[in-house]
Structures are given as structure tokens and as C-alpha cells.
Amino acid sequence: xxxxxKLRELKEAIEALIKGPYTLRFPKEPSVPPExxxxxxxxxxxxxxxxxxxxxxxxxxxxxxxxxxxxxRSGVRVLTLRYDHCIFCAQCQRNCLTEQGIRLTNQxxxxxxxxxxxxxxxxxxxxxxxxxxxxxxxxxxxRWIARNMGAKVYASPGLLLVRHQELGTVGETAPRPQxxxxxxxxxxxxxxxxxxxxxLQEELR
Length: 205
What we know:
This protein is of the alpha+beta class. The protein has two domains: about 100 residues, 2-Layer Sandwich (Alpha-Beta Plaits); about 80 residues, no CATH class. Helix content is about 30%, strand content about 20%. It contains six helices and six strands, in the order αβαββαβββααα. A hairpin with a 2-residue loop joins β2 and β3.
């Protein structure tokens, strides 16, 4: 009764020497993960519009958003993903506005000596309020909204202007004169505060 298990173990050891082990040969040979594997997250530049929805839903706070204003009505939004903080929950991918702006790849061998290298970054041009100059969102985000609203875009003069500018049917709007908000500002790209000011002025007249 005692010898049988020992003989079985000896047999398995000899077979392993001849046929090779049952386990994976990683890292000597790459191993292919399953299709549903959640690995290293990456931005897809052409699909990301810089809306920052991924940052809002990230439970690990692994995605930081910074609006870098470099001059009057010029600047970029920088989204920085620290995948050494990531818990690979895929909430960013699941809640992406375009559904393709960020994705979890099948890369799993992420070991490194310097954690400062565990960074993915994307930059998008900012759109600014034509009245107060405050950053609103990214240019690509506004265009995506205007493009996907369909006929409803006619309910928002600012988004309608963005859509026509993208199509090339109108040029750039003339510089806005100094002073309080006026009726003509309806046909400008405004931040929520300035848009509210214009609407209130119209209601009070």
C-alpha cells in the first residue's frame, strides 16, 4: 500500500522528463491569454475624444486629467493613465463615450524596475468659451457630440456652429467684442455659465 503511490510519482517524474512538463513554459516561451483577459489598458488616440469619462468612473483613481492652458484660448487636455495603480476592472472601457477610446489589451507581463515608466498618456486640443475664455472640454468632444445628436443639434446653436465648422460650411466666427453677453452670443461656443447668462438676459427682456 505504501509502494504504489511512490511508483506512481516516479512514473510521472520520468514522463515529465521525456515528454516535458504539463505547466506553461512562460517566461521562456510566451503564453497566449484568453480573449476575455483584462490586461494592460491603453488609449486609442484616434477614437479617444478626451471627454474624461474614464477618469470619472475609475475606482482606483488611476487616470488623471489636467487642462494645460498655454495661451489665450489655446491649450491641451492631458489624460494620464498610471497602469501600476490600475486594478484591471475595465470600467474605463465599459463607460467610454465612443466605446473605443480606451481598451484593456491582453498584455500581462508588466514587470519593470522603474514604476515611472508605467504610464499611458494622450493629449487633446481644448475648446474655450468665446465669452469668458474658460476651457469647456476638448474640440474633438464637442465635434463628437454635435455629430451624434443628429437633427437634435438644431436645438443648440453652439453645437450647430461646431458641426457646420467641422463640415466646412462656415468659417471661424468673428472676434467677440468686449462687454456683457448679448443676443448674438447665442451663435457662439459658450461655457455653461455664460450660456446661462445669455438665456437669462433673453428671458428678462
